[in-house]
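Hey, weird one. I pasted the DNA (cytosine-5)-methyltransferase 2 sequence into the form twice and got a warning about non-standard characters only the second time. First submission, copied straight from the form history:
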Amino acid sequence: METKVGKQKKRSVDSNDDVSKERRPKRAAACRNFKEKPLRISDKSETVEAKKEQNVVEEIVAIQLTSSLESNDDPRPNRRLTDFVLHNSDGVPQPVEMLELGDIFLEGVVLPLGDDKNEEKGVRFQSFGRVENWNISGYEDGSPGIWISTALADYDCRKPASKYKKIYDYFFEKACACVEVFKSLSKNPDTSLDELLAAVARSMSGSKIFSSGGAIQEFVISQGEFIYNQLAGLDETAKNHETCFVENSVLVSLRDHESSKIHKALSNVALRIDESQLVKSDHLVDGAEAEDVRYAKLIQEEEYRISMERSRNKRSSTTSASNKFYIKINEHEIANDYPLPSYYKNTKEETDELLLFEPGYEVDTRDLPCRTLHNWALYNSDSRMISLEVLPMRPCAEIDVTVFGSGVVAEDDGSGFCLDDSESSTSTQSNVHDGMNIFLSQIKEWMIEFGAEMIFVTLRTDMAWYRLGKPSKQYAPWFETVMKTVRVAISIFNMLMRESRVAKLSYANVIKRLCGLEENDKAYISSKLLDVERYVVVHGQIILQLFEEYPDKDIKRCPFVTGLASKMQDIHHTKWIIKRKKKILQKGKNLNPRAGLAHVVTRMKPMQATTTRLVNRIWGEFYSIYSPEVPSEAIHEVEEEEIEEDEEEDENEEDDIEEEAVEVQKSHTPKKSRGNSEDMEIKWNGEILGETSDGEPLYGRALVGGETVAVGSAVILEVDDPDETPAIYFVEFMFESSDQCKMLHGKLLQRGSETVIGTAANERELFLTNECLTVHLKDIKGTVSLDIRSRPWGHQYRKENLVVDKLDRARAEERKANGLPTEYYCKSLYSPERGGFFSLPRNDIGLGSGFCSSCKIKEEEEERSKTKLNISKTGVFSNGIEYYNGDFVYVLPNYITKDGLKKGTSRRTTLKCGRNVGLKAFVVCQLLDVIVLEESRKASNASFQVKLTRFYRPEDISEEKAYASDIQELYYSHDTYILPPEALQGKCEVRKKNDMPLCREYPILDHIFFCEVFYDSSTGYLKQFPANMKLKFSTIKDETLLREKKGKGVETGTSSGILMKPDEVPKEMRLATLDIFAGCGGLSHGLEKAGVSNTKWAIEYEEPAGHAFKQNHPEATVFVDNCNVILRAIMEKCGDVDDCVSTVEAAELVAKLDENQKSTLPLPGQADFISGGPPCQGFSGMNRFSDGSWSKVQCEMILAFLSFADYFRPKYFLLENVKKFVTYNKGRTFQLTMASLLEIGYQVRFGILEAGTYGVSQPRKRVIIWAASPEEVLPEWPEPMHVFDNPGSKISLPRGLHYDTVRNTKFGAPFRSITVRDTIGDLPLVENGESKINKEYRTTPVSWFQKKIRGNMSVLTDHICKGLNELNLIRCKKIPKRPGADWRDLPDENVTLSNGLVEKLRPLALSKTAKNHNEWKGLYGRLDWQGNLPISITDPQPMGKVGMCFHPEQDRIITVRECARSQGFPDSYEFSGTTKHKHRQIGNAVPPPLAFALGRKLKEALYLKSSLQHQS
């Protein structure tokens, strides 16, 4: 029996039928005889216009126009029908079954049957028919189809018109019920009626018409006779069918079943579906049954349909009401579940919450700061303990309950309540909490977030959100009820998830199952049904909120939720109106009963930043202009965008498909100017100054339309694009061409708004660029006033410059008010190709000599981009590098293949996500010869290839060999390759081992290798060099090394005769450095190791981190204090209080500093270098500044950091931060930072670097901003040395450009990546929760990295780790010890804990939500020995943001020392405080190898300046 929709054969039209006699609807124009009246379709009508329906009157016309996909062997037309209505002769919509009692007609859109995707061929008809019969198909497929037949064709009903939808949908559900009963009885004819109804209800549970499975069952019973007749009709058309529906006892029982509430449907139409014959429905009507009875039955069914619709609307209104109102929980109803009344007592002094925050502003609740509250308690205005439940779980207006709280506030540490912990304690806390005792203002709402196996409870005041840690012992009994209710909700989740259909469990079913829980179950309430139901209803708001947050839609809308909401509605409690607006006004008074008690001043308040007036003005003026009110929805969207950009959680942000990483998207194409059609007088004004290189006369001045244009001035040129502002160009020189045209050559002066600083730029400042062009003087539209500005540099000139700038701004404002032209100034060169702003090349601009430095740069770039032979054809130029025979070179690895010559491809190999497995370093080769192809020898641009011999690396042999070998070791071979010159990627050195630098340090920044072994690739064996083989090694060019070799390393030429490392510089010759936001000192350590910095002062707010800094930098003066206070103290000491913008609190704290502290403060002129990374609180996903309010931005520490730079005016300034710093707050913070440094007078360079490419085994992108005084040289970016797969370092620039700081190393780098085994493979075994600080190594270091990171250490410190709770430890042991294993590899089984509780080994919550969260990859994950460690965070845990934290072979979380090594800290580096403090110090640190690489480039810049000065 073929019943598939669209393939069922239909009956053909009998040629003897007199279709001309059929009844027609009143609106239709009848065509009486199709046979006698030929159909003529005009040429215009033959083609249906795309997306435009044709309207026709005759059915036959519609059939002909939609015949494009008609099957020739189908005797009867089949069509699709959409947007249709079945109506009577008066045009009134009618149910399909009404066909039994009268004539039914059709209107709609007819389409070809087989062309589902093509809706352009539809033909609309107003009305035709009549409808002869209808039938249901799709029984075998399980997908019902409704077919309607007229005398001419059969129509597959797809989509009804909107006005007909409700009527048709009801009939379609009847068809669905028929198909589901057919499916169930075909599988099991002997099933019971209850089982049949349950099966059908499960299958139809997705329907929006029914509220629950019970409603579906009632509907199926009401349609019993209808269903019986349809299936009985199948017996007649499918006689060989194994199931006999007519005599099936269950189907007969369904037909005869009487419902006390709903009258049976009375349609006894049986349809026969046959390939050869269809029986009309009216043939099956029992003639004995009176027509009025049949009509009454149909009317009754229509009333039933309408009643169902009303019920559905009522449910919808109930749901809508639940979104408008919050049902208040009365305290007396839940009193039995709580302890007897008790009062809050605390002898400790508590600080008013309002002192930590600044009240009085309208803020969005989503922008409030988030803190953690430990050791907390809640109470009312009488200090009586009170439950959280009396508070709303949604923001409500005018709540009539007052709840306050107290506790120890600390920075948000992600605390939560572990569901596996029987004591309702957090899994991430110690008993001692750092923070301060406070009392809260009125609590307005609270929420529960359900995250896998952690519960996060958060409450909100008007000042902040507080994530709750462990409650106080006094309050713990009041909180236990809340946690128990959470466990009840989670138990219900588990019940529902175990069902194949969640609709199977009604509210009553769930209550019964809760009664059956064992007494030792954490969700056990009672065995009595009434007690359980009372508990669930009175605590229903907690349960409903958890269901609302659950990601599974079916569970969210399950019958249990509907039933519980209905029960809560029936209680008739007070309803609070839910607030739609998220904005709140922070009040300035705290009504907490503890407000009358004495309190202390807090150090934790986010103090308004202490700033200089210059920085305050720049940021304040910007926010006075660009702080429009942003709708809360828009703010939310911005936040979501920024969260998605957070590279800290994603190791594979984008797929770069370029084979060669491009440093920057260059653009030297100048703006095209538009010629001037006006006639104006143009003549030279002055004598000839000289000639161009082409012999054309040069002039210094010209008169253009009465205006004087001079070399060194600025002119306006209109551009082709009318939407762009006119371009301003700096005049380099003017000349008269050979065809007597007066010409000008100039460089583009870019407006600040068109640079990376955007709207933060000063509208009067222009930036010189390297974009130049030559135009006719007649194209000039005018001149502008331009001042090539120069200011004396240094802290001693700061006040003088401020006065001059103030007068300049006043003059500009006056000119603007009087409508006078803008006077521009220029003091910097903007180079997007180099990612920065540089001092003007004053010696090369405005000379009028015919020379243009920009043209020279373009010529050099074009020359570098060429690949060509040298003149003697014995060498190669490629990418600006000249290669000669005998040179050691880098080759892209995808050019070296087993089958010889094969051009590289940009297609990326399949890699394990984020682990660098599969990435290869450059292949080191020696250039043997340049082969010029024979056919191109005579051509000027001859084609050529290079012949190379290959060196193998240890990793080419095996993983074990790579692990145990020096990363700079190579093996010579006889393998040769002939490759295109594009494969070459640079030069390196290969030396004998005893010619290597004596002091090789980590990280490696030199391209030097050594070779002393031969590798036979044919046998795979390593051998000593054959006696007859002569390998020409690199020549040693390092004079220091030559002296060392000659003197055997005893002396290096110093007068003292003390042995000194080649790169070591005495501290007195280094830059005196002030490290702000110093942390434990990772940045300072790397810079000092590079030999460029001497950290004399450090400022760190957190005491444990400050102590760690002091331990590792004992000579530095460390201020463990707020940097705002320190800056205020310095400015007071120097007598510059008038220039200091700070709070009264900062001044009071300065007064409390002792004289010893004040005497050690750094002063302007003493610090050559300021470095640091401002806290990221403002740049994280949860911040209080995203609304752009200036009053809130003033608390950003970035302002204080920039003010240090302004006040001290050091030679160099370095800012480090997370990648998101560039995009935070729509990029405004980044732009204002750049604008501030430029306004101070600095040269500025910006970029993003990946620490993993500098020798650490973890991905860690950092934004770096360098600033150098106008007299210094800006450091270049360090070259990435290790392959690492973590792209995403591009910074977007205006005009469609982007800046790539350094090349991407995914396709090759000088060295391989550092692996997990390299990093931690030598560390001894430790157990879960290890706390012993000092240990023995027990083994010798194996890898090159281990040898460097250990140094001379004999005692291993801080190889300690956090402890896993019992369940997580069991899970850890069950995670397979193989690469990439995580929670998905856990067996699906239960485990019994020591307390007797039975828990699921595989977290159910993860299993059910995996599809929406990238499979929760990495949670409970094991590290891969050959991969990299995850991003170092402040609190590693298996359910954290970086869940891959299990050791590759041991059953524990990675230790403090292992995390430190992943950041590149040497084993000698000490950390301070608890295990948690140490993880925090490491997670917040700058990787020392990255700092070392930056320091080396800074040292090069200093040497370059010294060299330039020596030359001059």
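That's the output from the first submission. The warning seems to come from a hidden character in my clipboard, not from the data itself. The first strand starts at residue 54 and ends at 56.
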